[in-house]
Design goal:
Elements (H helix, E strand, L loop, with lengths): L1 H19 L6 H20 L3 H7 L7 E6 L2 E5 H15 E15 L5 E14 L4 E15 L2 E10 L9 E2 L2
Antiparallel strand pairs: 1-2, 3-4, 4-5, 5-6, 5-7
């Protein structure tokens, strides 16, 4: 009887440990799905498609992103972010993004991902100024209803201003 009780406790212990540790069954597929969302984000900038952009982002008013200029420190909520992207699309032309490197990581539960990408973004401002921006991008994505969506991002170009990156072609 004592041996049966010990065996039962051991089995219960193993089941508890196994049940608490959730793992991703197909890491490669999950990373590809995350990468596809980030690629669609980049594509939305290139083709200036706010609907494609919207499909990559969590439409939540509680989200906060860090702005890219001194005048705009915080981007609060989906509405403000969407308005900013529409204005950005109106001021950038012939945008190209060359991804230099990407790292994608997944949480053990498979519900969150974080990534870092290095981009060379080439664009022309409305005044004709051509720019090459070496962007460092960080991303946080959440899996919702079996789809990945960006819940936070940050991009930086260092301490220079946009005009400091003008180029002659």
């Amino acid at each position: 009887m004592k041996r049966t009780s010990m065996f039962g406790l051991f089995i219960l212990f193993l089941l508890t440990i196994i049940g608490c540790k959730q793992t991703i069954t197909d890491i490669s597929s999950a990373k590809k799905a995350v990468k596809a969302v980030i690629d669609n984000y980049a594509k939305s900038w290139i083709i200036e498609d706010i609907e494609l952009y919207s499909s990559t982002m969590m439409p939540d008013e509680s989200l906060v992103h860090v702005g890219g200029s001194q005048a705009l420190n915080w981007i609060e909520g989906w509405t403000e972010l969407k308005e900013l992207i529409i204005k950005q699309n109106q001021s950038l032309n012939d945008t190209q993004i060359d991804e230099k490197k990407a790292w994608i990581n997944l949480s053990q539960s498979g519900e969150f991902a974080w990534a870092v990408t290095l981009w060379d973004l080439k664009t022309t401002l409305n005044d004709g100024t051509k720019c090459l921006l070496p962007l460092r991008c960080t991303w946080i994505l959440e899996k919702k209803n079996d789809s990945w969506i960006i819940v936070h991002f940050h991009k930086s170009i260092g301490i220079k201003t946009l005009r400091d990156y003008s180029i002659d072609e």
